[in-house]
Amino acid sequence: MTTDIASIALPGGERIAKLGQGTWEMGERGSRKADEIAALREGVALGMTLVDTAEMYGDGATETLVGEALQGLREDVFLVSKVYPHNASRRGVERACEASLKRLNTDRLDLYLLHWRGGVPLEETVQGFEALVRAGKIRYWGVSNFDTEDMEELFEVPGGDACAINQILYNVARRGPEYDLLPWGSAHGMPLMAYSPVDHARLPRRSPLDDIASRHGVSIYQVALAWVLRQPNVCTIPKAGRVDHVRDNRAALDLVLSAEDHATLDAYFKPPRSKRPLEML
Ligand code: NAP
């Protein structure tokens, strides 16, 4: 297996791995720590160098674990963290970012996201993010759980169009963003980062995923990942706390679903024919 991996471009042109790694629920149980660290390190070794975390996860314990896992690998990784909406004021983002950097044991984030929209005016959050860019604490900023109207509002705010990415819930069982948010992203050169690409391990049992998986000799998780990965302008961050799951996920990048597979999936997981509000986990 090669560490060369498909990539997508951020609006500024820098390329990031199309397949990365999530970390939600890591670092919460001591008994899983060694497996989680091994999984993250294996993922980076396999080219899944996009690593997503958040100050919220494990009340900071996840960032601490990620910092430990990336020891000696930091320069190979495109590291993403997220700020709570209630910390997203001009000064709040500075404080939250400093705390995240400390836990992650690094001096900068590659990307810092507003976890979801809260009460702080977007203008103020953008100012806070831009100040962090100027200070060299973050390289890019973006948003998460922003629906199309939120993105439109963001682009109205001074500097709002410097947003680098929108991280959203998107997988074969939750296709709402295909109606308007994916097209909006393509029209505005705004990439999307699909979270929960295997639906938080709650993909439906007894669906066409089973037949397709057995036809290709893979798991339903790999089929679901290959399905998300087919979209241009979209990267994704499955979370896997086990080395074997990480290897399977990396292999999904090389799985090509046929036109027949897609037709079967479309018949069962129907594409949206009208606006569906963006879901979030
Ligand atoms: P997910 O990646 O869809 O699913 C993770 C679950 O699937 C885990 O239980 C994992 O098990 C299992 N899994 C992964 N690969 C597998 C494989 N090949 N075979 C069998 N099981 C497999 O769900 P997620 O963690 O919700 O989403 C991914 C990441 O997106 C998160 O970790 C987080 O970084 C981010 N996220 C962001 C938001 C947001 O609001 N911005 C919300 C949710 C998630 P093991 O751990 O046992 O391997």
From TrEMBL:
Which EC number(s) does UniProt give?
1.1.1.-
Q: Which CDD domains match?
A: AKR_YeaE (cd19138)
The residues covered by the NADP-dependent oxidoreductase domain are 18-267
Which domain of life, per UniProt?
Bacteria
Keyword check for Ribosomal protein: no
Answer yes or no on keyword Oxidoreductase: yes
Task: Please provide, alphabetically and separated by semicolons, the GO molecular function terms listed in this UniProt record.
Answer: oxidoreductase activity
- State the Gene3D superfamilies in the record: NADP-dependent oxidoreductase domain
Provide this UniProt record's keywords sorted from A to Z.
Answer: Oxidoreductase
Recorded hits in PANTHER family, A to Z, give: ALDEHYDE REDUCTASE, OXIDOREDUCTASE, ALDO/KETO REDUCTASE FAMILY PROTEIN
Report the protein name in the record.
Aldo-keto reductase IolS
Q: Can you name the source organism?
A: Paraburkholderia caffeinitolerans
Chain's gene name? iolS_2
